[in-house]
Amino acid sequence: MTTSNSIESRLCRLEKQNRVLRGIALLMGSGLMTLLLVGQAGTPAVHDVLRTKRLEIVGHGGEVLVKAYEVRGHGHVWTYDDTGRKLVELTATKGGDGAVTTYNSEERRLAELGSTVKGEGVITTFNRRGAPLVAIGGTEDGGMLLVSNHDGRPLVGVAAGPGGSGQVTTMNENNTTVVHLGTTESGNGKITTFNSDNRKLVELTATRGHGGAVATFDGRGQELVTINATTAGNGAIATFSPLGHTLAVWPLPTGAGTMMTGVRGEH
Questions:
Q1: Is residue 46 part of a domain?
Q2: Higher pLDDT, 30 or 50
Q3: How far apart are CA 152 and CA 142, in angstroms?
Q4: Burial level of 103, CB count in 10 A (0-12/13-18/19+)?
Q5: Which run of H or of E encompasses 138?
Q6: Cβ(256)–Cβ(241) under 8 Å?
Q7: Chain segment 139-193, per-residue pLDDT in tens
Q8: pLDDT at position 3, please?
Q9: Cα 38 vs. chain centroid, distance in angstroms?
Q10: Is 51 helix (H, G, I), strand (E, B) or coil?
Q11: Alpha helices, DSSP H only, in the chain?
């Protein structure tokens, strides 16, 4: 009996010790879990690199506000308002140059930063219907400014010309040049007007002696009358036929009078 009572007492003590150990283990496990949760909430994980083929950022209501993914081998980024309308587009041109476009509430272009086909930078603004109004960019010779009407047809162009000279061109509704302000090869100023077929009508320029000169032309571009200064500094007038023959020159090379060289049937 004594041995049996002794064994039973030991078993009771072991059972009590096990219950105490289980309680301690449970408390320690709960405390460790709490520490881990608090630590994660206070210090969120930070990734150095995020790699994905497509990225979408959404608002509180689940609406997509930003999209970023690949198109034809180039990265593209779009931003949207809360109704899904496109606002800004970051993309690439067909030539591989970067481009940025902004849109109005009707998803029509308002402004665009891009490049010309030859790689010069260009900024273009548009009206609310999407027609281009002003373009500022570059050419092989220098800067360029182009102003268009409400339909997007060019009206006035200002650009750097060959040799570093300035040029101003005005155009009609058919995109035909009607007035051109530029320079001669010798660096003098020149103004030329054209008809609707882009043929010269009047030209104001300078002679080789740096005197003023005015020439008028017919509808085919043939010179008819020239008023200019001679190398001696005198004024001179010459008239021509539609075939280019000289009809009259004043003064004569001797200094006075009129010389007639008209061709019969052309006077």
A1: no
A2: 50
A3: 23
A4: buried
A5: strand 132-138
A6: no
A7: 888 899 999 999 999 999 999 987 778 999 999 988 899 999 998 877 888 999 9
A8: 53
A9: 52
A10: coil
A11: 2-42
Distance CA 63, CA 82 (A): 6
DSSP assignment of 203-226: EEEE-TTS-EEEEEE-TTS-EEEE
How many folded domains does the chain comprise? 1
Question: Would you say residue 249 lies in a domain?
Answer: yes
Length of the chain: 267
- Of 28 and 224, the structure prediction assigns the larger pLDDT to 224
Which residues have C-beta within 8 Å of that of residue 260, sequence separation ≥ 6?
A: 247, 248
Domain harbouring 248, CATH code: 3.90.930.1
Domain assignment present for 263 = yes
Residue 184, class by beta-carbon neighbours within 10 Å (0-12 exposed, 13-18 middle, 19+ buried)? middle
- pLDDT at residue 267, rounded to an integer: 32
Q: State yes or no: pLDDT of 40 exceeds 70.
A: no
Cα–Cα distance, 113 to 50 (Å, whole number):
28
Q: How buried is 195 (Cβ within 10 angstroms: 0-12 exposed, 13-18 middle, 19+ buried)? A: middle
Residue 249's identity, in one-letter code, is V
Token output for 226: 């020239």
First to last CA, the chain: 159
Q: Is residue 181 part of a domain?
A: yes
Domain hosting residue 191, numbered range:
176-267
Distances in Å between the Cα of 121 and the Cα atoms of 61, 96, 103, 144, 264 are 39, 13, 20, 10, 58
**204-258: per-residue pLDDT in tens?**
988 776 688 899 999 888 999 999 887 777 788 989 988 888 888 887 555 555 5
Q: What is the CA radius of gyration of the chain?
A: 42
